[in-house]
Amino acid sequence: MLIAEKMTNLRVGEEDENDLCLETPLDFAIADAWRLALNLDASDGKSVLRLNSNFLFMGGDSLGALSAVRKLRETLSQIPTISPSGMDGIGIFGEDFGALSPHELLQRPVLLTFASHLASTLNLPKSWTERKGGISEKRDSTVVEARSEYELSLIRLLVKSNQFKAIEAILKVYESEERSPPRDDAAVCLACQLGHTESLDILIKMSVFESELEHCRGARNANLLHCAARNPAKAGKVLAILAKNCSESVLAKLMQSKDDDGQIPLHALARFGASRSLINDFLLISKKSGKDLINARDGFERTPLHWASVNGNKNTLCALLEFGADKSLKDGNGETSLDAAERRALCASSERIPGERPSKWADIATVLGGSGSTKHLKGKK
Fold first, then answer.
1. Average of pLDDT values for 357-367?
2. Which segment of 115-119, 360-364, 368-372 scores lowest on mean pLDDT?
3. Which domains, and CATH codes, for the chain?
4. What pLDDT, on a 0 to 100 scale, did the predictor assign at position 144?
5. What would the DSSP string read from start to end of 53-87?
6. Three-state DSSP state, 142
7. Which of 325, 313, 243 is CA-nearest to residue 284?
8. Which residues sit opposite 54 in a β-bridge?
9. Nearest CA to 55 among 41, 70, 37?
10. What is the sign, positive or negative, of the torsion defined by CA atoms of 320, 322, 326, 328?
11. Coil, strand, or helix at residue 311?
């Protein structure tokens, strides 16, 4: 068991655990927002948040970040001295940015780093941000991450770095001792999201039965296909592993099941810019007609076409149209996919992802039958 003992040295020791405990009111406010956004059970030992907790490795994505910053904004808005410039209103889908934008959280997913960002950007009172001891705010984030947010799960730590031989060695010990191996949904979901197919294959063969794969859930109730869809470059290989180990009926159920945002895996493929061939592969495993899935609505009443449009994924959008997506459908905000593209093409740079040009959405608007203008037209109805 030398491999496991060596990896255990990366876990946080008793003294370091104290150093990494939440300390300031801001730390606790962020942790509370993350728990809400990711539907974490505070009583679950695996969900203990520390300064080195990583929002992305816990299963967070752009919609989870939007939910988290909304909750955090609600909490921080009660502080009278807070900087107004950092508390810009957040639109229905996070288009209005500031220090609390979803993008800022995704760029700084480690709790300590995000807390330091807010402390330096917002005019928070010292009583909310001052650290009396323990860990330095300027501590090297790579060291914090190396200790891993998954100190309570050695297997998750190994999955994160795709050390599949070490995972296999640990699970074989359980076999030799005739003990049931631990089932860890988060580890399986993480392997799918990162595209670590070697680790995924071993976890399925040695610790998760087919009947359990159907019920594996990550943050925000995302199933294995939701998680795989977040990484389109590797999702095809993950899908092949799942197809080898799951029946057609199980895969069909996964393709049709919704997460806490009301999204099916096809929504995630659209959000993250999947290719035509990958979308086709996902559609083939469902027993529903392609158009039923293509035009599925989520909790925002958005279809996959809406998300491809909003996120600027032109090739994905063209593929969805080819598969029968209805561009006339409106979301809960009354927008069609064309409306969303034209809004992004015309909005201020502060309301777009940093570095993205309006022409990206103008091109999409043209594909959808719009003008493709990046300047406001007076009298437009």
1. 94
2. 368-372
3. 12-147 (1.10.1200.10), 296-381 (1.25.40.20)
4. 40
5. -BTTTTT--HHHHHHHHHHHHHHHTT-TTS-GGGG
6. helix
7. 243
8. 110
9. 37
10. positive
11. coil
